[in-house]
Amino acid sequence: MPSSNEIKAFIKGFYYSFPVQLFMLHLRRYQVFLIFWFILFSTVNGDFMSTFGADALFLSPEYLGEVNWLGMVIVGAATGIFCMSWNITTFILHSNQFKFLATTSKPFLKYCINNAIIPLTFIIFYIVKNVLFDIHSELLSAGRIMLLISGFLTGITITVIIAFLYFFRTEKSMMRTMEPVFRDPKAFAKQFGIGGKHFHEKGILRVEWFFNTSFKLKMPRNVSHYSQEFIDTVFKRHHFTAVISIIFAFLFLALLGMLMDKPFFIIPAAAAILLFFAILIAASGALAYWLKSWWFPVVLVIILVLNILFEKEIIDPRNKAYGINYTNRKERPVYNRDSIMQLCSIQQMEADKQHMIGILEKWKHKQTEEKPLLYIINVSGGGTRSATFTLNVMQQLDAMMQGNLMNKTFIINGASGGMLGAAYYRELFRLKQQGKSINLQDKRYTENISKDLLNALFSSFVTRDLFAPAQQFETEKFKYSKDRGYAFEEQFSRNTDRILDYPLKNIISDEAEAKVPLMFFNSTITRDGRKMMISTQPVSFMMRNWPDSASGISSEADAIDFAAMFRKQDPYDLRLLSILRINATFPYVLPNVWLPSTPIIDVMDAGMRDNFGQESSLRLLNVFKKWIKNNTGGVVFIQIRDRKSGEWEDGYEDPSIGGMFTKPVMTLQNNWMKMQDYYQDEMTEYGNNSFPFSFTKITFMYTPLPKQKGAALNFHLTQTEKLDIRRSLQSAENAASFKRITSLEQGSSKGVSGEMR
Predict the structure, then answer these.
(1) pTM (2 decimals)?
(2) For residues 135, 136, 137 and 139, what is the CA-based torsion angle, rounded to 10 degrees?
């Protein structure tokens, strides 16, 4: 039984051990570096940004389209780089606190061994969470899981070995350089000031034990008799070596950015995030080490200089819409009330209305019934989960309607991810109409639309946006910078077999002849919240409610006809892939797109204004209500949404004291889509009461299984999420909606119309 003195001695020795003292030092100084570890731990644990599926990016990293051993090696290597960046940066910043290491061999290796509490805890925590995630979410076998974990550990091991071989080599070179000085006492005293100024021990760490390179406990050497010059020389040599390694890492990332047009160089999103964090730690450490207390003024000056260069358009990191003309500044349209109202004058609205009636007549001409049902499809935003659910619903609807869904649909409207799935399905239908051998019910199309998009996006953000921003690509006429917006388009194009890689002008005639449904691609203008509408056809009548001088109603324009406004900027040369991205520009994940107007405006996700497409569809029905009444058996208003309506169980609550301060902002964020639901349900009711034709609204909703976490709102899905989306089609609510479609089709063939429910 140990005595009380022995217990006290053990506790004292434990507390003053080098690992514990380093851990305490991190808590006391430069706490900003611990934020990175906090984000990583909370992300892997499923707390940080779990709604957007951030945990899945780390726990099921995809590489070359699948979760595989090589992808885990890359994530392991990135984890190793992050840990080494943490070690290098803190070693440089804290070296004056543990001067005894300067008198030992391999000081950096000893530092890493004793500084391993946080990195080792994270690695073990990650492995445990990864195993559980692979079992429950990816549905992998035990053998496959062990293979993936071995890949992760292999990546870490390779990185650590390369790093230490580099430091050992430079240390040997340093010792060879200093060996003549060590052998000559006079030269040593002359160079390092023996007998001169010695350092003071005040302020350095009190360390009684540390682990050596053999993982054995050892007492530190008394170094008070060494001169400050000697200690500084040893550490500065290691600091220089560390800085060189960081520079090489930067150059490697820049090279990776130049090569990432090839899928082989698109690393998993988790690896890109880890590399980004490693860079931030290294850059922050460098500023703190070299600039000391001057780091903040210097950073402020750099920001001011960059801001001036940006305002003068000397540097321009903003993302552009690929295909349109940004070069002709003299003919940029003016963005103000007068110019916008000219685009939607009564005369112009009437002319565009008659043009659209011509398309409606062509749509009716290809129907088999005298008064056919007019289908309108509205799809919601929601990333890849919405795209996948939308495509699943459209496939099943088309099968039930004997392949006539697209023929009977006049327009598809909506936002973000839902439009990705709808545009893909419409293009498959268009190609089939042209004679291509396509089975619209083929499940590989669902697999294509559900493929990962985040890896390319985050990889490009780290390797291109930050380190290789000068790369460009060329369309038919113009050059544009490659950034994460370009990477997103390219990855989506690869996922969908590049069938959507063409300019808007290529589909003008098919839409004008009603060979395929029209599509309105919306986005939100950040300047004033107006809607930017991209269509192959003139749509000035969609820019505002139809004025009625007799009743005194004359509303302002709340939407812009893109092609009309930018008619001198080659609007129909805009890439369809860019249009889809603009429609789905989720804040921060994808860059806002700026447009060549005066003043310049930029646009972002359509879901900010109308996440379900209903607002635009109802306005369209109101404009053409007389034609619809005289020529159709009514409207079937199909809504495909990636979330339940109502959602009583998902109310915003934050009982913490911090919630008192964050509630005003978080309430708006959490209730934004619900408020759109309330407003649009009211609009639908008003519309139904005023429409002179039969109006039937049918809703398909993605609803996860009870007690199961739903698919995340991002551009990445796990295997469980894909299965859950597929199962959701068979829910009681969706089964009833499919049944209603069948009843409507049977009633339409007998001349019976539906009614609003």
Answers:
(1) 0.83
(2) 50
